[in-house]
Amino acid sequence: MPNIIDDIDARILDQIQSDGRITNQELADRVGLSPSPCLRRVRHLESAGVISGYVALVDPGTIGLEVTAFVRVRLKEQGDRHLAMFEGAVVHLPEVMECYLMTGESDYQLRVVVGSLEEFETFLRHKLTPIEAVAEVTSSFALRPVVYKTALPVRARRTGER
């Protein structure tokens, strides 16, 4: 863990990750600081890039995004040109929630969210496979989430918990 994170910072991060709308006063109370030093720490964590932003988490099913697919992509070649071509294209696809450069049999792993299997087919046929660098695509569909977390285990990492 970077040296800029101490135990109080870790407590602040835990609280903000569980409630991004927490007031500074409530946050200060929960981590044992007065409001001014607490706000200074939060601002420092923001300026250092530890806190990269604030978001609202939307339940996909409530807005009609019922299908989550995990898509493995192999490229025609693994050279910089093909990697840049694929990454430059996939970053603009709104259905792609996550994209990772991988080791192993696939070059990339994507998490794709769409409203239906028909929408997934359209995404696959008209957006993903036409990317020139793509050689092969393999998909798996999530039946249901078992564990879905957005909060990183900051304090567990600091204390060495497993």
List the strand order in the largest sheet.
2-3-1-4
Q: SS-based structural class? A: alpha+beta
Spans of at least 5 consecutive residues whose pLDDT stays below 50 are none
Main sheet, how many strands, which sense, barrel? 4 strands, antiparallel
Give the helix proportion (percent range). 25-40%
At CATH level 2, the architecture of the largest domain is: 2-Layer Sandwich
Instruction: Kindly give the count of domains.
Output: 2
From N to C, what is the helix and strand string? Answer: HHHEHEEHEH
Radius of gyration: 20 Å
Q: How confident overall, as mean pLDDT?
A: 94
The CATH superfamily of the largest domain is: Lrp/AsnC effector binding domain/regulation of amino acid metabolism (RAM) domain
Q: Write down the overall geometry.
A: elongated
Discrete helix count: 6
CATH topology label of the largest domain:
Alpha-Beta Plaits
CATH class of the largest domain: Alpha Beta
Strands, count: 4
Distance between the termini: 15 Å
Percent range for β-strand residues: 15-25%
Give a short overview.
The protein is of the alpha+beta class and 162 residues long. It contains 6 helices and 4 strands.
Quickly list its features.
162 residues, alpha+beta, Arc Repressor Mutant, subunit A, Alpha-Beta Plaits, 2 domains, 4-stranded antiparallel sheet, 6 helices, 4 strands, elongated
